[in-house]
Structure formats: C-alpha cells, structure tokens
C-alpha cells in the first residue's frame, strides 16, 4: 500500500502533498479544508492554492497531487501520469511566482524532474489478477 506524502519545497516556501487513495484524500482534507470533499475521479489531478490556516495575513502556497493507483495498469502509465502532474505543479508554482517558462528553462525542467521522482517514490502498479 502506498503512503500519502508531504514535503516543504524550501527554496519556494511551498508545501507539496501526494495522495493515491480516497482515504488519504479524506484524511488530508481534514487538515487542508480547501480540498474538495471527494477525491477526484481521474487518474491524476493537481491543485494549487494559497491558503492561510490561521485566517487573515500571509498565505502559504500548497500543491496537492492526486495519483489514482487503481486506474493505472502499467508502470509506464504511472510514470506518464506522474510526469504530467509534475509539469502542472511546476507550471502553477512558477506562475504564482511570476516566473515565465521559456523554451530552455532549466529551473522548470529541474523542478519537473524532481517532482516526478518524488511523486513516484514508493509507488508501484499491482499486477493484474
């Protein structure tokens, strides 16, 4: 069974979360009420929000990535979804920071690669019965 994960991207002062089951999504929602009540029905989903857990004042950026393991039938499809969602997450974060992504943008490429590896850590597709 995969575990939910979270990490603080220190350099960007942004919290990142990975959930792979409806139960993990529900548990995270209790801590992060900006999430929808139900987990997404899609194979993958990325949400970016700025949120202040204490009310008015400075907000914190949060990225939540959903990867539905049940909808993946191969490691290849899982890698595809992780890379796809990592690209969304990096794009959303850089848009928030005001950083325009160019065609040879090393910070964006690095972040997509790092996020993809982080999202995949500990995930495997179960062999079909």
Question: What features would you describe in this structure?
Answer:
There is one protein chain. With about 130 residues, the protein is an alpha+beta fold. The protein has one domain (about 5-120). It contains three helices and four strands. It has helices at about 20-30, 75-95, 105-120; strands spanning about 5-10, 15-20, 45-50, 60-65. Strands 1-2-4-3 form a four-stranded mixed sheet, with helices on both faces. Helix 2 (about 75-95) crosses helix 3.
Secondary-structure blueprint of this entry?
Layout lengths: L4 E5 L4 E6 L2 H10 L12 E8 L8 E8 L7 H23 L8 H15 L9
Helix pairs in contact: 2-3
Quick description:
The protein has 129 residues and is of the alpha+beta class. The protein has helices at residues 22-31, 75-97, 106-120, and strands spanning 5-9, 14-19, 44-51, 60-67. The protein has one domain (5-120).
Helix content: 25-40%
Question: Structural class, judged by helices and strands?
Answer: alpha+beta
Cα separation of the termini: 16 Å
Task: Kindly give the count of domains.
Answer: 1
Strand fraction equals 15-25%
Give the assembly state of these chains.
single chain
Q: What's the average pLDDT?
A: 93
Succession of helices and strands: EEHEEHH
The main sheet orders its strands as 1-2-4-3
Main beta-sheet annotation: 4 strands, mixed
The stretches of 5 or more residues where confidence is low (pLDDT under 50) are none
Give the tally of β-strands: 4
Rg calc: 15 Å
């Amino acid at each position: 069974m995969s575990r939910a994960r979270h990490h603080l991207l220190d350099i960007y002062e942004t919290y990142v979360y990975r959930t792979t089951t409806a139960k993990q999504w529900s548990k995270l929602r209790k801590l992060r009420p900006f999430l929808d009540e139900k987990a997404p029905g899609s194979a993958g989903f990325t949400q970016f929000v700025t949120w202040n857990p204490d009310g008015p004042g400075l907000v914190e950026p949060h990225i939540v990535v959903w990867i539905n393991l049940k909808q993946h039938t191969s490691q290849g499809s899982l890698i595809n979804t992780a890379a796809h969602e990592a690209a969304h997450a990096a794009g959303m974060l850089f848009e928030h920071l005001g950083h325009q992504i160019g065609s040879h943008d090393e910070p964006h490429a690095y972040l997509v690669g790092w996020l993809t590896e982080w999202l995949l850590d500990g995930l495997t597709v179960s062999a079909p019965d």
